[in-house]
Amino acid sequence: MLNLFLWGTGMVAKQVMQQCLTLENYCIQGFIDNDKSKQGTVFMGKEIYSPDVLQEKRPDRIVVLSDAYQEIYDQIVREYPQYSECVENKNYFYKESILKRYHNCQDQELQEVIQYIKENGLSVFNYSFAESYYNKEVQVFWDEIYEHFYVIYNGHRMYFSKQYITKESAADYYRSILLEQDQKSPHKYLTEEFNVKDGDVVVDVGAAEGIFSLDVIEKAKKIYIIEADEQWIQALKLTFKQYSDKVIIIKGFVNSYDEFPFITLDSVIDDCVNFIKMDIEGNEWDGLIGASKLLEKTSDLKLAVCVYHSDFDRTLVESFMDQKGISHHVSKGYMWFPTPLRQTYISTCLNKALVYGYKSGV
Length: 362
What we know:
Elements: E1 3-7, H1 11-19, E2 27-32, E3 42-43, E4 46-49, E5 61-64, H2 69-79, E6 87-88, H3 92-101, H4 108-120, H5 131-134, E7 141-143, E8 148-153, E9 156-159, H6 167-180, E10 201-205, H7 211-216, E11 222-227, H8 230-239, E12 247-251, E13 253-254, E14 262-263, H9 265-268, E15 275-278, H10 284-289, H11 292-296, E16 302-306, H12 313-323, E17 327-330, E18 354-358
Parallel strand pairs: 1-2, 1-5, 2-4, 5-6, 10-11, 10-15, 11-12, 13-14, 15-16
Antiparallel strand pairs: 3-4, 7-8, 8-9, 16-18, 17-18
């Protein structure tokens, strides 16, 4: 059993201690924190020490449970260089569990991901293509009239929610969505083989900044954009203001029933639709149930439905499509999702990102 010190006693540390299921497999000797007011007290049942404890005790690993990983790592290397090869980041426990889970896996796609994790550590996208986005140079502009940050995306102004209060925070978010929609990404909504056709009626459920709708704006006959966050709604209105003739923006949480603030696609859309993209934080199955009538209206239909937010999403969505006679396949590659939404723990599985559904006539 490995002896560990955990560095950090903030929110990240609390979340790991509450949501990680494998801590009993390790001997946790205590926490380390630079804050002298915390030293000598107890956090999550363990004593908090000064960093000087590393001169007395010899842990096998130091796990940094903080978003300030680089700063703490640099301190360890500077002050305790004997531990420079023993420092792990906040994903350590999940990484070890994933490596153990897939140790004997024969799936070629998974083997490639596991090898990347072994060599580089665990992240949401465990592929080398993602590295080009981490420090990608992007240009963010400020609209003085509407007081929003925006970027130029494919010739269009794409505005950001007012929650992004600095250029750098907006740039970080923009990098993340560019990464998600890279051609090599498992999270890519559209592929060369699975795409919106000219004249399609499109539904974008969980639009956020609207990158999906911007990608298909010239092809689509009409787009229904559905988003629950009021700040994103305001940004979307700016992004699509020149397309008011073909874009309808609807506020609401898409679900399986209608009761404010929840709505169903059946209640808000009366058109025959041709393409539905759905990315709503693990509520995709509920959203599909609330679109049962809509899905029956056309035989020319495609669906791009996210299924990576929990370990059971894919099973639910594929079962629903089977019941409705909707053919389907999954996206290439795998993702790891580090946030508990519909499950109370952080997953130690690698999951497919999307189920692509299609009815005959497509």
